[in-house]
Design brief:
Number of helices: 3
Strand order of the largest sheet: 2-3-4-5-6-7
Distance between the termini: 29 Å
Helix content: 10-25%
Strand content: 35-45%
Radius of gyration: 18 Å
Shape: globular
Number of strands: 8
Length: 139
């Protein structure tokens, strides 16, 4: 058996929640028809009812140009990030958009990217959902 301090250290092992990040959801963009080439818009991001920043987005034919501006440091623009958008065919017709995670070794097809800078999938950001932290139900 191990000695003192040999066990798991929960404070160092916990993963962040999705709510701690700014998110970009391709499903919402598709619903609002904002993925078409030539579309340009700003998405204002809020946390706890306070504005934290703005995502400036320009849609191209198969990718988005995203630039984040923090509300605290408006003059400090972050570099433009290119996010590829791919489409999959649905079983009963239509098409569904996906982001390809821009991380160098990832390339996963995901619906939500977390950031602000850079925007990455939840696997690359090492994010865990609340349900993944719950213990088993004990009866």
């Amino acid at each position: 058996m191990g000695g003192i301090f040999s066990g798991r250290k929960p404070a160092l092992m916990t993963k962040p929640f999705p709510e701690e990040f700014i998110s970009l959801d391709v499903r919402k963009l598709q619903r609002e028809q904002l993925l078409g080439p030539g579309e340009a818009y700003n998405l204002h991001k809020y946390r706890y009812r306070q504005k934290v920043g703005v995502l400036s987005i320009k849609a191209r034919s198969n990718f988005l140009e995203v630039q984040y501006t923090s509300h605290e440091k408006i003059a400090a623009l972050r570099p433009i990030q290119l996010i590829e958008v791919v489409w999959s065919n649905c079983n009963f017709g239509g098409r569904r958009p996906w982001f390809l995670c821009p991380a160098e070794q990832c390339g996963r097809r995901v619906a939500i990217l977390y950031g602000p800078n850079p925007l990455l999938c939840r696997h690359c950001r090492r994010i865990a959902y609340q349900s993944q932290r719950e213990d088993q139900i004990q009866m």
